[in-house]
Specification:
The complex is a heterodimer of chains A (513) and B (646).
Chain A: H1 8-32, H2 36-39, E1 44-50, E2 55-58, H3 69-77, E3 86-89, E4 101-109, E5 115-124, E6 153-157, E7 160-161, H4 163-170, H5 176-204, H6 206-231, E8 234-242, E9 252-261, E10 264-268, H7 284-297, E11 313-316, H8 332-352, E12 367-372, E13 375-379, H9 409-415, E14 418-426, E15 440-447, E16 451-456, E17 477-480, E18 483-485, E19 488-493, E20 498-502
Parallel strand pairs in A: 10-11
Antiparallel strand pairs in A: 1-2, 1-5, 3-4, 3-6, 4-5, 6-7, 8-9, 9-10, 12-13, 12-16, 14-15, 15-20, 16-19, 17-18, 17-20
Helix pairs in contact in A: 1-5, 1-6, 5-6, 7-8
Chain B: E1 3-9, E2 13-19, E3 25-31, H1 37-48, E4 55-61, H2 64-71, E5 77-82, H3 88-91, E6 116-119, E7 122-124, E8 127-130, H4 134-145, E9 151-155, H5 164-176, E10 181-184, H6 185-188, H7 194-224, E11 231-233, E12 239-240, H8 242-245, H9 255-270, E13 276-281, E14 286-292, E15 295-296, E16 298-300, E17 303-304, E18 307-308, E19 312-314, E20 316-319, E21 325-329, E22 335-341, H10 360-366, H11 383-397, H12 401-425, E23 435-439, H13 443-454, E24 458-461, H14 468-475, E25 479-489, H15 495-509, E26 516-525, E27 532-535, H16 542-557, E28 565-575, E29 586-587, E30 594-596, E31 611-612, E32 615-618, E33 623-626, E34 630-634, E35 640-644
Helix pairs in contact in B: 1-7, 2-7, 4-5, 9-14, 10-11, 10-12, 11-12, 12-13
Classes of the chains: A alpha+beta (513), B alpha+beta (646).
């Protein structure tokens, strides 16, 4: 079948079929996994790639994984994978994002030696070793402090698990049993994806499938460019800061110039800080993910999520830039916090260019990690979304680059020596306005054992901004036994100590009436 | 036992099927009465006019709960929650309503935070950490009474494992507010995860008073006709007595669609099949379901009308791809179908009620699959108008009308096929091993195309395809469930202990004579968040259960772990005897009625023969398309088996 003959009908059918495979992978992972961060919070993504390594579909879970997963598959392809090989990686400089995100990629064959596609699953593991329990350290200044660093390694060769490699990985983490279970579930999810893709290719035939992938990516690209043309030629710029790099509290400036011209979306981050000592450096894949997310939010709900979205995007970063992390920089917070700030930055530049966007949301993931004797627990907290011309901002949700669920209080208290004293809406924290910003949340933890807490957060000093005359959201607050803590910090806790997080509210929209 | 009657209330029609002691079936169809569904039910029964004393049972499928959740017209509720976590209904699970549509919010919770009373108490997994005092009980009861609510819902942390505080508080509130209904969350859903449990309990409280009033009116109308009090189908395919149904309102949220899958299962068993996918296509939507080993697949979770209800439900996935779904061209130049539906008004262009947008039904007409006489309900089809609307759309796409019509149907089929894949593949069932049971007005119309896209080779078009849900209700056995929490290492459970659990639960569930007992343990590896259902018998011990679990886990997910196997809970279902069903060859009847006689009886006029596709066959209440390469043959039980030629 020729490319021209690939019609809208066959396209819809194929798009559904591939999306279905990715969804199914996500279900297998959630059902089989052990750690609450994966099974309750779904801090994970699944995607299907064709033989050329192009992302054809991703299950809609976590935006920050969106533009970043294709890099993983490209890094694996560079290692010349054989049929039935499964690679494991987390290197931020070779296909990964930050170290706790372990990505597994299976090379799928139709039975012979030829590779017909790839199934990939990325999941945030609650510990991968390094200087602090939970592997989301504050104050790290080089990558190796943050945990075990894995370039793409061949964990499974032609269907056979390399036990010694798995042992090596498990020997370097604080919670090996839980990791083993989560990795097994991840492998099962890849297997489900491989089965689904194999069945689809064998039903459709390899040639037709290739044509279908071309057509699908082209279709998505067409939708994106059509939307950009509808916006018209536009230019805007914006700047913002990160509240310290985790080592020092000196602000880290970020800047962008955004240009939409003839259906292309160009971003130039000149003026942003050089690489910093602490771990807010972000690999370029993470910056691309933020660009994909912002662009995707301008499109209609039904545009398929595949690599076609990224085609109109061009990104320029200066040679030495906090938004282009290189070895040996530390990066743990880059994926979770810098990514949020880049998304804010791009929305601000769009607003400057005259494109209507909502007021700013909480702009942070509020990463909190506890680690004690034989256990580590990681979660992120929702907050206020910004209001828009269409209505008030939603309260107590994840905004921007994350969309993980909460850890149910009951699941948390059963699994760890922590009591959640308060989990509530932070009333009045949304900005005022004709449409009010969404409220943040309050979460108060009382620990029952000695342990360490690490907090990586933002918007504790500079509030989420309102739009069109709307008020700012309230800044977030971190406290230990009632005393304020900085945006990024680490503390040793004794039994009975109380950690309180109040997450930021979203900005309001329009002058209050 | 006399005649068993099933009555299913849908959006447009109220369907009735009556099965007598010899298994013969009679059906009726009347217009639904949305203001009070019991009017339509009474009208359907009057249309049947059974002789006094001949009716043994009336089974009912209702959309009262679905509608009140959609319209938000339930009771005034006050929620009592553990101090510190009183905002659960608003907090939900923290994910946003849409990943990329930043302005979209979730529907508001059934109870806002101004109607929540904080309770000073705390239970931890290890036990009580803050005791509930008499003074606190009293304070809470007074605070609640100030709202003068119809219903009080109590949901406290960790009550799935220890509900003593919930029960004491309920008693205190009942003493002060004797007129109010008091619902404890642990009694509605004794499971971990506070948000899902609380939300489900709120749905129960919110729906309960209206459900009771409705069921009261219904039984009054039936009593006035000398008929027995009805039993009501649950979302899970169970059957509740009128009194029980009044206390399980949240479990009636999918009462209607469940009846369809139960009916499909009965017909499929009668035809000798075990595993099936079901598809019920109506005017605005299509429902996909799964039957494994002759029984509908039942799962917990999901939401109805934006209200999360974590109770067992017959697996039904609804997609907006019915006859009224509208075809349009999007910004990228692609042809799209739905989710918008023209509904019954203005309806498809062919209805002539003022619709201008071409729908799936219009495409079927343009393809010659539907003729003017095909739809029931007194609608005459304007085929020329339908063809004109399709031709207009074709011009915009630069395609021929025939290809455009075929594409519209194919796109609708693709979204239904995706739902069918989700319900099967996601649960480890290969659709190619299944027969496709196609019913509802549109099911038999789309069945061949759906089967082809899923690689299925056999389709069962049941007798009475257009009223199958009512038939399902008429023949569904009574089914009651009992559950208990276990929370133990499987290897430490002895044979005697397991037998005692089974005995206790079977005793609680079985109120009927000679029940069939179905016992399952909910089992997982310690640390997992979800369980697998492992069947067990009185002769099993924990080690046998652990082995069975490992095999099941390996089959489902492809791996096992060297970890403690944990038995979380035990569930037992007791089922009454199945009703006999002897579906005979169909007679054609006028005025929307049809009946069937026993197999072998000579039915006079309408003889059915083997039919090779492509061919369109008009059934009594539906139209069947037999595609090229498919062959349909009539079954001894009535209906058709459509098979792909090898």
């Amino acid at each position: 079948m020729t490319r021209a003959a690939f019609d809208p009908l066959a396209l819809s059918v194929m798009s559904n079929a591939v999306a279905m495979i990715a969804e199914e992978m996500g279900t297998v992972l959630e059902r089989g996994a052990l750690s609450p961060n994966i099974r309750e919070r779904r801090d994970a993504s699944a995607a299907i790639f064709d033989a050329a390594g192009r992302m054809i579909a991703q299950a809609a879970h976590i935006p920050v994984h969106l533009g970043a997963m294709p890099e993983s598959v490209r890094a694996v392809i560079a290692r010349q994978p054989g049929a039935g090989d499964v690679f494991l990686l987390n290197s931020p400089f070779d296909g990964g994002s930050h170290l706790p995100d372990l990505t597994m990629v299976e090379a799928v064959s139709a039975g012979g030696t030829r590779i017909i596609g790839y199934a990939a699953v990325r999941a945030h593991h609650a510990d991968v070793g390094g200087m602090s329990p939970g592997s989301m350290p504050q104050g790290a200044v080089e990558l190796v402090q943050e945990g075990l660093h894995l370039p793409p390694i061949r964990l499974v060769r032609a269907g056979r698990l390399d036990d010694s490699l798995l042992e090596l990985v498990l020997a370097n983490v604080r919670t090996p049993d839980e990791r083993r279970g989560d990795l097994e579930a991840q492998r099962a999810a890849c297997g489900a994806g491989a089965d689904g893709w194999r069945a689809l290719v064998s039903r459709e035939g390899a040639a037709r499938m290739r044509a279908a992938c071309d057509a699908l990516l082209d279709y998505t690209e067409r939708r994106v460019r059509a939307r950009l043309r509808e916006i018209g030629d536009a230019e805007g710029s914006a700047s913002d800061i990160l509240e310290g790099d985790g080592v020092s509290e000196a602000p880290v400036p970020l800047a962008v110039r955004l240009r939409i011209r003839r259906g292309a979306f160009s971003l130039d981050f000149s003026g942003s800080s050089p690489r910093v000592r602490g771990n807010v450096n972000a690999p370029k894949a993470v910056v691309r993910a933020a660009a994909v997310f912002v662009l995707r939010s301008l499109l209609d709900d039904d545009v398929p999520v595949n690599e076609g979205i990224a085609r109109p995007i061009a990104i320029v970063t200066p040679d030495d830039c906090v938004l282009d992390a290189r070895w040996p920089s530390a990066v743990a917070a880059g994926n979770v916090e810098t990514s949020q700030r880049v998304a804010d930055l791009l929305f601000a530049a769009l607003a400057d260019a005259g494109v209507p966007v909502p007021a700013q949301g909480q702009g942070t993931m509020n990463n909190i990690t506890f680690g004690g004797d034989g256990w580590t627990f990681y979660e992120t907290l929702g907050g206020g979304q910004g209001a828009s011309v269409r209505g008030p901002g939603p309260s107590a949700v994840h905004v921007g680059m994350s969309n993980t669920r909460n850890t149910p209080v009951e699941a948390l208290e059963r699994a760890y020596p922590i009591e959640v004293e308060t989990y509530a809406v932070r009333r009045g924290s949304g900005g005022s306005g004709a449409h009010r910003g969404g409220d943040g949340v309050v979460r108060v933890y009382r620990v029952r054992e000695r342990c360490t807490v690490t907090i990586l957060s933002e918007r504790r000093l500079r509030a989420p901004r309102g739009a069109m005359g709307g008020g700012d959201g309230a800044t977030g607050i971190n406290r230990l036994n009632g005393k304020a803590l900085p945006s990024k910090c680490r503390a040793e806790l004794s039994p009975g100590d109380v950690v309180e997080i109040q997450t930021p509210g979203g900005g309001g929209w329009g002058a209050p009436r | 036992m006399g005649i068993s009657i099933g009555v299913d209330v849908g959006g447009t029609f109220t369907d009735l099927a009556a099965v007598d002691a010899r298994g013969r079936v009679v059906t009726r169809k009347v217009l639904s009465t949305p203001l009070d569904q019991s009017d339509g039910v009474a009208a359907a029964i009057d249309a049947l006019s059974p002789a006094r004393g001949t009716v043994g049972r009336i089974a009912h499928g209702t959309t009262v709960v679905t509608n009140l959740l959609l319209e938000r017209t339930g009771a005034s509720v006050v929620l009592c929650s553990t101090r510190g976590v009183t905002d659960l209904p608003e907090l939900r699970r923290q994910e946003r309503a849409a990943l990329y549509n930043l302005s979209l919010d979730h529907p508001p919770p059934l109870v806002g935070n101004s109607r929540v009373v904080a309770v000073h108490e705390r239970v931890a997994p290890s036990g009580v950490t803050i005791a509930l005092t008499d003074a606190e009980e009293d304070r809470v009861a007074r605070a609640v009474a100030a709202y003068a609510p119809e219903v009080v819902v109590i949901s406290l942390l960790h009550a799935y494992s220890n509900d003593a505080h919930e029960r004491r508080l309920a008693a205190a509130i009942s003493r002060r507010l004797p007129g109010a209904d008091v619902v404890t969350a642990a009694s509605v859903l004794p499971e971990i995860r506070e948000y899902e449990r609380t939300a489900t309990a709120l749905a129960e409280g919110y729906a309960r008073p209206r459900v009771r009033r409705y069921l009261g009116r219904l039984s009054q109308r039936l009593r006035a006709r000398g008929l027995p009090s009805p039993v009501v189908m649950t979302s899970g395919g169970g059957m509740l007595t009128l009194d029980d149904a009044g206390e399980c309102a949240a479990s009636l949220a999918l009462s209607g669609p469940a009846g369809g899958v139960v009916g499909a299962a009965a017909v499929m068993r009668a035809a000798g099949f075990r595993d099936a996918l079901t598809v019920d296509i109506g005017g605005t939507s299509a429902d996909a379901g799964l039957i494994v080993g002759g029984e509908p697949l039942v799962e917990a979770g999901g939401s109805v009308a934006g209200v999360p209800i974590a109770l067992p439900r017959v697996l039904v996935e609804t997609v907006s791809a019915g006859g009224g779904s509208v075809a349009w061209v999007d910004g990228g130049g692609a042809l799209r179908v739905g989710p918008h539906s023209a509904g019954a008004r203005p309806g498809p262009v062919a209805f002539g009620f003022g619709g201008t947008e071409p729908t799936v039904t219009d495409a079927q007409i343009a393809l010659g699959h539907l003729d003017a006489a095909a739809l029931s309900g007194g609608v005459r089809l304007d085929a020329a108008a339908a063809r004109e609307a399709i031709a207009n759309l074709a011009r915009r796409l630069g395609a021929t009308p025939a290809r455009t019509a075929a594409a519209i149907v194919a796109i609708a089929d693709a979204s239904v096929a995706r739902a069918l894949r989700r319900v099967s593949v996601q649960r480890g069932v290969d659709p190619r091993r299944c027969v496709l049971v196609a019913f509802g007005g549109g099911g038999p119309l789309h069945a061949c195309a759906l089967a082809e896209s899923l690689g299925m080779r056999r389709i069962l078009v049941p007798p009475h395809a257009g009223v199958l849900s009512a038939l399902g209700l008429a023949i569904a056995p009574e089914r009651r469930e009992a559950a208990s929490s276990v929370m133990r290492d499987a290897r430490g459970i002895s044979r005697r202990e397991l037998a005692a659990i089974l005995r206790d639960l079977a005793g609680r569930a079985a109120a009927m004579p000679r029940p069939r007992i179905e016992a399952r343990l909910r089992v997982r590896y310690q640390g997992q968040g979800y369980e697998l259902d492992v069947p067990f018998r009185a002769s099993d011990d924990g080690a046998a259960v652990a082995r069975r679990f490992a095999a099941l886990h390996d089959a489902r997910y492809g791996f096992t772990l060297d970890r403690t196997v944990e038995v979380v809970a035990a569930r037992v279902a007791a089922m009454g005897p199945r009703l006999p069903l002897r579906l005979g060859r169909r007679q054609r009847a006028s005025d929307g009625r049809s009946s069937s006689s026993a197999p072998g009886a000579e039915s006079g006029g309408f003889r059915q023969r083997m039919t090779r596709g492509p061919r369109v066959v008009t059934l009594g209440d539906a139209t069947m398309v037999v595609a090229r390469g498919w062959t349909a043959r009539p079954l001894p039980i009535g209906g058709w088996l459509v098979e792909r030629a090898r």
